[in-house]
Design brief:
Order of helices and strands: EHHEHEEHEEHEHEHEEHEH
Helix content: 25-40%
Number of helices: 9
Shape: elongated
Structural class: alpha/beta
Strand order of the largest sheet: 8-7-6-10-9-11
Largest sheet: 6 strands, parallel
Distance between the termini: 47 Å
Radius of gyration: 20 Å
Length: about 240
C-alpha cells in the first residue's frame, strides 16, 4: 500500500488545490473528510476516486474502502488535507456528479446567493431529510466545497444540484410553485398549500433580490412572536421544508 509522509508531495499539493472552487471546476472533483461523510457519499453512488488514511485508520481499507485505491498518510499530511479543527485522518477524493437534466427538477429549495458554507450544507441536509430532491443555486457558495459537503454530513449525495440562472429556472419550472421566503408581508405558511414548491431562500445579509421576489408565485413569512427581526437562513429554510412535508 502506497504511503505519503510529506505535505509537499505533488499528489497532496494537487489535492489541496481542491479547496478552491476553480480547481474543483477544472477537475470536476472534490474532497470529503470523515468516515460518516465519505461512506454516505459512497452509499449515494457518488464515484470514489481514491482515499487517504492515517495509519490508525488503515483497517478501513479492508472494510469500508476495500474496493478503492488507498494511500496511507502521515498526521501532518492529514492536517494539510483537512479544513477541520481536528483532522479525522480519513480523506476521500470524489468525482462531482454531472448536473441533472432540467426535466428532473422537483420539490426543494432555490438558494439566492447563500454565502455561508454551513448554511448551505445544513439546508442540503434538511432537504435530504424531508425527501426534497432539488437544490437550485442561482449564485453564491459552491455546493461541492469541502465545508458545504461536511456541513451536509455527506447528504449532498441524496439530492440533485442544479446551477441555473433565474431566467432558466422560471422557464423550466413547469408546474412547480416558486415561493419566496421573506421576513415580512408574506402569507402565513399555514394558509398556503406548500406542496409542489421550490422555496426561495435569500442571502444571509440582504435576503432575496427584489426582482426575484416579484417574479415568485407566492411570498411566505414565518411569524415570530418574539422580538427578533429575522431567522438565520438555514433555520428559516429548515422550518419551511419541515412544514411542507
Amino acid at each position: 500500500m502506497k504511503q505519503i509522509t510529506s505535505a509537499s508531495n505533488p499528489t497532496i499539493k494537487s489535492l489541496k488545490k481542491l479547496f478552491k472552487s476553480k480547481a474543483r471546476g477544472e477537475t470536476q472533483t472534490f474532497l470529503a473528510e470523515g468516515l460518516r461523510a465519505c461512506t454516505t457519499l459512497m452509499d449515494c453512488g457518488i464515484k470514489l476516486i481514491d482515499c487517504y488514511l492515517t495509519d490508525e485508520n488503515k483497517n478501513l481499507a479492508e472494510n469500508e474502502f476495500k474496493n478503492c485505491r488507498t494511500t496511507i498518510i502521515s498526521p501532518n499530511v492529514a492536517k494539510a488535507l483537512s479544513q477541520a479543527t481536528t483532522p479525522s485522518g480519513i480523506v476521500c477524493h470524489f468525482a462531482i456528479p454531472q448536473q441533472p437534466q432540467i426535466s428532473e427538477l422537483s420539490e426543494g429549495i432555490v438558494c439566492d446567493n447563500i454565502q455561508d458554507p454551513g448554511n448551505l450544507g445544513t439546508l442540503i441536509r434538511t432537504c435530504a431529510a424531508m425527501d426534497k430532491k432539488s437544490i437550485v443555486l442561482l449564485r453564491g457558495v459552491d455546493a461541492w466545497s469541502n465545508k458545504v459537503v461536511q456541513a451536509s454530513a455527506g447528504a449532498i449525495g441524496y439530492v440533485k444540484i442544479f446551477q441555473l440562472s433565474w431566467q432558466e429556472l422560471k422557464k423550466n419550472k413547469g408546474k412547480l410553485n416558486l415561493c419566496a421566503l421573506v421576513a415580512t408581508d408574506g402569507e402565513k405558511p399555514t394558509k398556503e398549500n406548500l406542496c409542489n414548491a421550490l422555496f426561495v431562500i435569500g442571502n444571509e445579509a440582504n435576503g432575496i433580490e427584489q426582482k426575484i421576489i416579484n417574479d415568485c408565485d407566492k411570498k411566505i413569512t414565518l411569524c415570530m412572536p418574539g422580538k427578533i427581526e429575522s431567522l438565520n437562513a438555514a433555520v428559516a429554510g429548515s422550518i419551511i421544508l419541515y412544514l411542507s412535508t
